[in-house]
């Protein structure tokens, strides 16, 4: 038995049984160890951004970490953008980064780099394994750190620690402490603030507070106490649909967000942070709440958010039998026809969404209407990229499908964002994952056109246009998907889109619709 075997055994003992991987020479002993462990599912990504993004999607749906396997510093660097998204989503993840044998490092071989320095900004915890005897304690520490509270961890595995002989391991399950409970003094303070500002209180729910059971409690507080329920701008995971409380998503544009929050005197945060503008804009504030708004944290990430909401409900005297307001049926709206539009796609997907589906939304500007419509859709899970780093949608959908093989996954994808990690389609084909990818093909970085206007540039010239548009040549997503092994078709009318979506939803396996808008 060697160190790599011990690492696998510790992971498996703690139900970390999926490894998203893109290995290299330094990791070959770990690859060999994985080969001896059929209980471990190994999923190859053709680019490290697919690997880390898939691990993010997997963990969001399972609430437990997957492992990633990355090749030295450059391999880690290729995966950093989606590690950033996972960090912002507070996703549990265990990155295993291979490195040169410890005695080889002083030679400064071509792939030598500062792995700790690269990993630290995107990880809550980083550790280099000191040798074969350190593999078990280091891996157990990585697992513990990934869940207390949930977050991204990085474990560096030198080649000689992997191939070095190790005593047979008999790892047990790592015992994790329960999440901290709500401070009753804080609960009373929040309750007093809610009573003092009837009709002018907002509550932002995130993390476990955005699951159906916690949302029910938040909805009861909202109905009984005239509290407006919000979600963050970018949503890590929310259980959504008919019969569930439907928080209003705070808009991305600064002016729209300020307008939504302008009447809020007290803002209560449950697993969320205070909303701020994504960027600084000339003449606009960075904080989105109005001056004088009291911002209170009921419970933070890592604390028991469900119990905190229960405690607040009790303190406010709201009975568990309190009825809440939730969406029941779609608004009366005619079925679109003719030329395909982004609104028509959003309406069609919301109406046809299967029960218990998973929606991974990286359509950026094009699918903004979908979230509001999703309140009327069949019950489902909704996820977004949370760090603002594009290229997370296809990998996130891939990981979600690995995590939940019996649930339909719908990926709403912008064409520009999708090109960052298009290789994820190949993994979907290889693993026969049940993912329907809908590419909003407007052949431009539409959000950047909006950002130019936001900074005061209302007319752009040829140089700027060439940096913001994706034409000349236009991307051909049908050919791209088929080249990756995924069946695909194109729609430019509402009727064609509806027919393709019906077909894709009626069968299993990956399918891509290029929606030309």
Automatic annotation (TrEMBL):
Domain Thiamine pyrophosphate enzyme TPP-binding: start-end pairs: 375-514
SUPFAM superfamilies, alphabetized: Thiamin diphosphate-binding fold (THDP-binding)
The organism's place on the tree of life at top rank: Bacteria
Keywords noted in UniProt: Thiamine pyrophosphate
Domain Thiamine pyrophosphate enzyme N-terminal TPP-binding: 1-106
Family under the similarity heading: Belongs to the TPP enzyme family.
Protein name: Acetolactate synthase large subunit
Species this protein is from: Mesorhizobium shangrilense
